[in-house]
Design a protein that fits this description.
Layout lengths: L24 H8 L7 H10 L14 H7 L8 E3 L16 E5 L3 E5 L5 E8 L3 E8 L8 E4 L1 H7 L14 E4 L5 E6 L16 E2 L25 H6 L28 H38 L10 H18 L17 H6 L32 H4 L3 H15 L13 H14 L1 H9 L7
Antiparallel strand pairs: 1-2, 1-9, 2-3, 3-4, 4-5, 5-6, 7-8
Amino acid sequence: MLRGLPSPLALALVLTAAVATPLSLDAQTAASATTDGLDPVARLTEALADGRETLAYDTAWGYLPALLETLEIPVSSQGLVFSRTSLQTDRIATWAPRAVYFNDDVYVGGVQEGPILEIATVDPDDGARFYTLAQRADGTPRFQEETTTCLMCHESKLTGGVPGFLMLSTLADRSGYPVTEFHAGSTTHATPLEDRWGGWYVTGDAGEQGHAGNIRSERTVHEIDDRARHLAGMHPGPETATDTLDAFFYTDAYLTPHSDVVALLVLTHQVHVHNLISAAAHEAQEAMRDQRAIVSTTGRAVPEDGYLPATRVRLRRASEELVQGLLLADEAPLQGPVRGTSGFRQDFEERGPFDARGRSLRELDLQTRLFRWPMSFLVYSDAFAALPEVVKEQVFARLESVLSGREGAVAYVHLTPDQKATIQEILLDTHAEYRGWVDAHGADETP
């Protein structure tokens, strides 16, 4: 399910983050909860039950248009996956791709005349959650939570060992069956662009290096003896660029004829950082549980700062991986300009938030990198807000150290002094929790 989401993590670390006075796990959860603790689908389910919301059923697309509108997911985010790598595999083909839509917290997938919509959300406390919505006009729409069916793929090493999201790049045959991988493992913002989006349709121009989208083998998977050699015969590059997909399938069967390259760039980054957030939260919870068990069974004294040495290392490692993801420390460079087709760029950038000078972390560069200011917009997400306080404290400490220029770790050499200063200014003006931490600690904290 959501495997192409299509249906995903890792970095070097510097253990120098400051740590705050620890809270119990229960206290952390209470202190960090800036939402009601429900994911967007759970909140919508409650709203449908008490009549605050309704979902209109469309005779052509079922609940899809109404669901996207209610969850504030732009149609321009549509990405089209033609590899048969999802829950509804039998309904996906090169002539009938699966459509994926997303915003900061929700992913929605659907296939032509499919009996269900597939939804993945980011639960503020538990990471990825998966649902289906039956495409039936009778009665009240009901979301069914899925567990084992989805977690067989969505809880693995590729997702950091916790429920997460997958985005893969595969060479598919003429019917959509996977032949081999363009890129081993999960596709992230570190993956070279020429290895991304195999098994996806892509509209727009990705610049000089091109991408692996829009490529398929004209032989069936059963006709190929040497898959690696067959892959070597494929040549992702600028020639894969196209503004229209009419030559591949009947585009009128979809809400929009686009599978925008800019939307796919953002999606690739977002899936990766969502997994990092979930992994950091999970590791912090496990580390504190293990520490309590050690103290309980051995009577070992806890240091004044509240952490055993092993606990401190685990917390810093999880936080550092997340910081590097947020700051796109290992981002593969673009050879732009990159140009989309669906209007997604405008839809994405106009959401803000904006600082007093009109700047935003959603501003896109699309020349040599994804964002104008290399810092993830997901720092504003519900998932980030719901991180255990002990993780956020360390993430804020590391961010302040890097952005103030006091941190010289090699992981952040991609940031110029001007970029660091600008990101710091935007965060201080738009992220109240980060500003509060800086006001309380700032440079007085020594990483």
